[in-house]
Amino acid sequence: MSKQKKRVTFYYHDDLETYIYYHDHPMKPFRIPMTNELIKGYNLTKKMKILRPSRSSVEQITRFHTDEYINFLSKATPNNIEDFHTQRLRFNVGEDTPIFEGVFDFCQISAGGSIGGAVLLNHNKTDIAINWAGGLHHAKRGECSGFCYVNDIVLGILELLKYHQRVLYIDIDIHHGDGVEEAFYTTDRVMTCSFHKYGNGFFPGTGQIDDLGHGKGKSYSVNFPMDEGMDDKSYVEYFKKTIDAIMAFFQPNAVVIQCGADSLTGDRLGCFNLTLKGHGECVSHVRSFNTPLLVLGGGGYTIRNVSRCWAYETSLLIDGYKLPNELPTNKYQYYYSPDYQLNIQSSYMKNLNSKKSLHDKYIEIYENLRNLTLVPSVGERTRPIDFNFEKQDFDENYQKESDLRFTEKDLDQNVEKINEFYELDQYFNNKQFVNHTKIQDFNSLFNPNTDQFFFNNDNLNLSDEINQIQKKKRKNDK
Ligand code: V1D
Ligand code: CA
């Protein structure tokens, strides 16, 4: 089942070659064109649909972000930033998140791919959508943070929620996926699961194992904090165990994975010891559940390894096609000197995570998952309007995909519900997260009468207890 052929859609925009935070900033958007060149060189573009993302609109972006913040972000430039004294502080502009030339344009492209991918998944026009320019998991509702300005992941998940009752978010970036966790902290319709380095002041300093969610969202935030030196064997083992338990207990209808490549060995900011094999095995494992899948980028600061990793993972997502280790001739060849190989070697660093500590954390996570209340029940079906589906941009250089467009009739079926989201400020007000997420409680939203149930337990070796829960939930879903 896991090697089943799938329809893969790949988002790429040429303009990504043009953005630069500043000369010495670790985040280099250029790693995306580098990835694309490897993908082209390996002929992977022939095996998937290639789309240029539409730039997401202010209206789309402010489904999550505040009007004030986005108004600022869309107007600020390196030339006028000095005029925005108070806003600079308020919206957290600084060394990590500078205002660079075209910053808002960059965000619109990044979010455009994630929202566009979610729309295609919603309409069963693809099985997997890939947007390596997305995955910017630290952006908050009213401020930028950790190299991230617009949270394309939250926007993509909001889009998926129009058609999918439960969405799972998985984050293998070495940093905690705080922006996404915070956005969905009080809902039981989105489970967030982040694996990350935690401790000794490592950014962003959140994501302890007992940060579980709040209110209806209690137990729907999963955090697996780790120490330096995680290697392929221990990471993959605990990734699989944790994800298997989540798939069994939560049974998502769609999955979003953030594939931050800063968890690789030798990353300029990271301190794990993963190779492409371990990182990729996590992505393959998620693919094997045959659930609609949105695959996103994220961090990654040794850019020659980021492009290697994401090109390799693109191949795993297509059909497990094995790439030759010899890198193809490509425009940015000199970055891969001296070996010009795809694979990277782990280093001799010590893995500071003992077997016992990882096992204990897994047990704690598993016990919390066991306490999940049953998934929300099904009611009347109304759906909000899709953003821009009819306006997906196509270009002569890109594959023309007229069959991916929707008819008026498809769009007419989507009815925006009044009071679609309402706010539960109390929790965050208490915590004084002034600029941060207004909590959305999604439980009273539309219902997915027609949601297909993609869960497949062929790959799982689970206890009877889990199987019984699965059965009960399936019954509930019907
Ligand atoms: F090293 C640097 C040089 C220049 C500018 C910034 C940095 C840098 C390194 N690490 N900044 C960081 C992190 N910030 C801090 C704060 C500065 N304060 C005083 C604390 O430690 C931010 C790390 C961001 C990681 C982003 C990410 O990899 O998770 C990501 N994922 O998707 C997109 C980005
Ligand atoms: Ca993470």
From TrEMBL:
SUPFAM superfamilies the record matches: Arginase/deacetylase
Span of domain Histone deacetylase: 25-315
UniProt subcellular location: Nucleus
Record keyword Acyltransferase present: no
Alphabetically ordered keywords of this record: Chromatin regulator, Hydrolase, Nucleus, Transcription, Transcription regulation
Annotated catalysed reactions: N(6)-acetyl-L-lysyl-[histone] + H2O = L-lysyl-[histone] + acetate
Pfam families, alphabetized: Hist_deacetyl
The protein's Enzyme Commission number: 3.5.1.98
Enzyme class: hydrolase
Domain of life: Eukaryota
First and last residue of the signal peptide: none
UniProt xrefs under PANTHER family: HISTONE DEACETYLASE 19, HISTONE DEACETYLASE HDAC1-RELATED
Family note: Belongs to the histone deacetylase family. HD Type 1 subfamily.
Name the UniProt record assigns to this protein: Histone deacetylase
UniProt source species: Anaeramoeba flamelloides
